[in-house]
């Protein structure tokens, strides 16, 4: 096999693997992770069991890979936005808009991540949890910055969980082609949030 042949083979394998991940996310989101079998997945991607396992380690591996990709991308973007040299109020809107846009644009992946990740083994659940905590930490950094700038009041840590949960639960109902865009929904959220956390005046 030539080097070019090797590159082509690797590219084809990666393309097949990406297709499996995309279709798996759609099946898991529609039917539930537990209710989706390997045979059903193989039929959907037009691969026999042996060929399918050539590209994946297990069904749980697919769940982990889908969830980690989605949460890691969300965490990377959250840290980037919070680290930008803009005002805390603006960062809050940008962070909210980003989260809802990512959930809307990748709704199958978001559904799998936020609904089905409970099925992960302890070690994999811990790794996914680390990425989730990166997003939560970005929220906390944002509010700490706002408090230091005297534009946000101090809030209880439990409120942070509520803010995160308010965004995450949108995977159940958000529609990127709905009457309101994800950004408009985020702005409505932030209008309420800012009235609650901003210092008077």
Could you explain how this protein is built, in words?
With 201 residues, this protein is mainly alpha-helical. It folds into two domains: 56 residues, Homeodomain-like (Arc Repressor Mutant, subunit A, Orthogonal Bundle); 136 residues, Tetracycline Repressor, domain 2. 75% of the residues lie in helices and 0% in strands. The protein has nine helices and no strands. The chain starts with a helix and ends with a helix. The N terminus is likely disordered.
Topology:
Layout (H helix, E strand, L loop, with lengths): L2 H29 L6 H8 L3 H7 L3 H24 L5 H18 L1 H10 L5 H27 L8 H12 L13 H16 L4
Helix pairs in contact: 1-4, 1-6, 4-5, 4-6, 4-7, 5-6, 5-7, 5-9
């Amino acid at each position: 096999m030539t080097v070019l042949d090797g590159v082509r083979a690797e590219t084809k394998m990666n393309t097949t693997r990406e297709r499996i991940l995309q279709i798996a996310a759609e099946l898991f989101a529609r039917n539930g992770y537990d209710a989706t079998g390997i045979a059903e997945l193989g039929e959907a991607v037009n691969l026999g069991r042996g060929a399918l396992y050539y590209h994946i380690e297990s069904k749980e591996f697919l769940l982990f890979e889908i969830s980690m990709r989605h949460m890691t991308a969300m965490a990377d973007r959250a840290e980037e936005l919070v680290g930008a040299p803009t005002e805390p109020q603006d960062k809050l809107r940008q962070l909210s808009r980003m989260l809802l846009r990512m959930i809307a644009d990748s709704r199958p992946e978001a559904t799998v991540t936020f609904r089905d990740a409970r099925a992960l083994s302890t070690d994999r659940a811990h790794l996914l949890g680390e990425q989730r905590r990166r997003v939560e930490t970005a929220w906390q950094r944002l509010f700490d910055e706002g408090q230091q700038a005297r534009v946000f009041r101090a809030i209880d840590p439990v409120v942070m969980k509520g803010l995160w949960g308010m965004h995450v639960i949108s995977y159940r109902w958000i529609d990127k082609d709905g009457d309101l865009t994800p950004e408009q929904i985020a702005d409505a959220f932030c209008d309420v949030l800012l009235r609650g956390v901003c210092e008077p005046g």
